Amino acid sequence: MDSFHLHILGAGSALPTKSCNQPSQILSMREKSFMIDCGEGTQRQMRSDNVRISRLNNIFISHLHGDHCFGLIALISSLGMFNRTADLYIHAHPDLKKILSSLIDCFCEGMTYKVVFEPINPFKHELIYEDRSLSVYTIPLKHKMPTCGFLCSEKEKDRHIVREMVDFYKVPIREMQNIKRGADFVTEEGVVISNSRLTTDPTPSKKYAYCSDTIYTESIIPYIEGVDCLYHEATFLHADLIKAKATMHSTALQAATIAQKANVKHLILGHYSARYEDLSPFLTEAKSVFPNTSLAMDGLSFDF
């Protein structure tokens, strides 16, 4: 899988509604799946949407308000029922280990796999996960408790080989990987062939940013500049700006303003307050500032 596939499992906020579970989503790339937040109802939505649970090895928790982590212990328990053996890594504020460890001891006796807690500092922008194709960084947010978003950045891809040129210069197969990574080629006669003659630019890497929960803050713009897709909380409509400020959340208009200022390609709104039965005004409000906006809804998927 060369693109990101984002699957929304929960698009609501603290109080679940008939249409929206508490926050959770799955980001998939190259046969790997990464969960971001795990609210109540997460695993039921996974079953309903036929999301493959076997590919899930890393869970990222933005903060320790219950709607973002109430589903964790249930998911951990269920994974044990599948005789899982691979470690499960949970990246979260250090306090989560204290909270979950006693619950695991109580409800998950005899588990066939290990839960590994990876502490993160929500006040810093830093690398917290890395593999051969992906890097994940924290994005400091401003909320009632220590909170961070996540920037998922695909690593730079190999350059594209120009077949006619490598054949012309008789580049041996053993040199191809170095050439793809930008190396020049030296012929048997000692002539240096510039890499720019042998390759073309790589396919641009993808970036996805998740920002929930947070009051409006332009401090995140340098971290999300130009991302392919931004998920930004929109708990309230702008008519309820006073309520948004009091609870340290954002409005749809503010989310769109961040997207515009950060030059992102696509904005997805989510984390709607249960007070709104009709979510269409969120889309109308955001599109007035940033036209390429979508609404997150439980069960929806986005490819980018």
Instruction: Supply the CATH superfamily name of the largest domain.
Output: Ribonuclease Z/Hydroxyacylglutathione hydrolase-like
Question: What is the CATH domain class of the largest domain?
Answer: Alpha Beta
Name the poorly predicted regions. Answer: none
Output the radius of gyration.
22 Å
What is the overall silhouette? globular
- What is the strand content? 25-35%
Number of helices: 10
Would you kindly provide a written description of the structure presented here, covering whatever features stand out?
- It is a single chain.
- The protein is α/β, with parallel strands linked by helices and 304 residues long.
- The protein folds into two domains: 5-156 and 208-303, Metallo-beta-lactamase, Chain A; 160-200, no CATH class.
- Helices cover 24% and strands 26% of the residues.
- It has ten helices and 18 strands.
- It has helices spanning 42-48, 72-81, 95-107, 163-168, 176-180, 195-198, 221-224, 241-247, 252-261, 280-287; strands at residues 5-10, 24-29, 32-38, 56-60, 88-92, 115-119, 127-130, 134-140, 148-154, 160-161, 185-186, 192-193, 199-200, 207-211, 229-233, 267-270, 293-295, 301-303.
- The strands form four sheets. Strands 6-5-4-3-2-1-18 form a seven-stranded mixed beta sheet.
- β11 and β12 form a beta hairpin.
- α2 (72-81) packs across α3 and α9 runs parallel beside α10.
- The longest helix is centred in the N-terminal third of the chain and has 13 residues, at 95-107.
- The chain is globular and about 75 Å long.
- The model has no long low-confidence stretch (mean pLDDT 95).
